Predict the structure.
Amino acid sequence: MTATHESLSHNQAIALLQDMAQPLNRRETQPLAACYGRILAEDLVAQRDVPAFDNSAMDGFALGPASCENPLIYQVVGTTFAGDNSGPTLMAGEARRIFTGAPVPGGCVGVVPQEDCQFNEESVTLSAAVHAGANIRQRGEDVRAGATVLARGTVLRAPEVAQFAAEGRVEIEVYAPVKVGVFSTGNELVQPGAQAEAGQIYDANRYLLFGALNKLPVELVDLGILPDDGAAVRSALHEAASSFDVLLTSGGAGQGKADYVSAAIAELGELNLWHLAIKPGRPFMAGQIGACLLLGLPGNPVAALVSFLTYARPVLLALAGAGFIQAEPLLVPAGFQIGNRKTGRREFLRARLLRNAEGQQVAEKYARDGSALLSSLSFAEGLIIIEEEIAEVRAGDLLPFVSFAALGL
């Protein structure tokens, strides 16, 4: 299919991209320390209870049944440290000095914290009776053997990797990273560190995208800057498509005479979507050359980042095995006004959250809307979404806000 020049809505684009983004399903086994940020390719089913035994939740005394004669006074009969065995069963009126994580002995009614009693080497005196089970971590209270702890497709953060460690595992089966090559395009671009001549600018977009890709399960390769030359663009895309799962370009996505990326994709493969009813980012395009997906971002940095976060990022997560994940927005009151807005397109405003004079958290938008204003991204903490049908925004209106933190920036 070759895309028409008619602008697609945001929802139409999402539906098309979901169809294109089928999981690659390549698996590999990696040591625990290499799995942060990767996508789980197996269910984690608990092989043992966690904790594996009843243990003390704090430093104190494990108490046996109360003595009838002196129910608040116990004889100390030993000490148990974490890593010890549980020791002999406690009899009535007996207590054992115990430390956090140590197994509780048989007959233990509960554990009294050391700060809640008076004690010496021979006895411990309570200020009040301890209820049954007090300060004891019960066997299996965290995880029961046979339970599915983590499902395939989970993004592995520190807590998830720790779950495998808690099971005694040293390796995890994960999906292989998506191979992503990144091009910038344009004769006006030069590499930072080189001499910029009149009419040239330094290429910031690749470094913007490298940062956005940094926390995704991808294998990233910098493919440099392509010139505004149709034959060179076609040759580079054709060669790279055989080596990568995804090619990500910035620039060359418009309809100008020097915008060669879209023409190259259409000539070499299929251009599935091009031009969206959004601001900024209208020239975003997606297509295929053989098995390689091509995601073409606009050249202006704000438009490039907005379209990457909104469209390219969910595609990469889906290819990686995590599913087509879109960040859930929060509703926040607008701290600004917009009148006579053009409807029919979705708009993404750079914004940050602050407290107004009444102490209410509101969204403050950047003062200007230009998509070339790289400094606006440093100002912002996320994006306010103005949906297609909204013609006016009044201060206090609740608007969707997606933080950059939720998007991995």
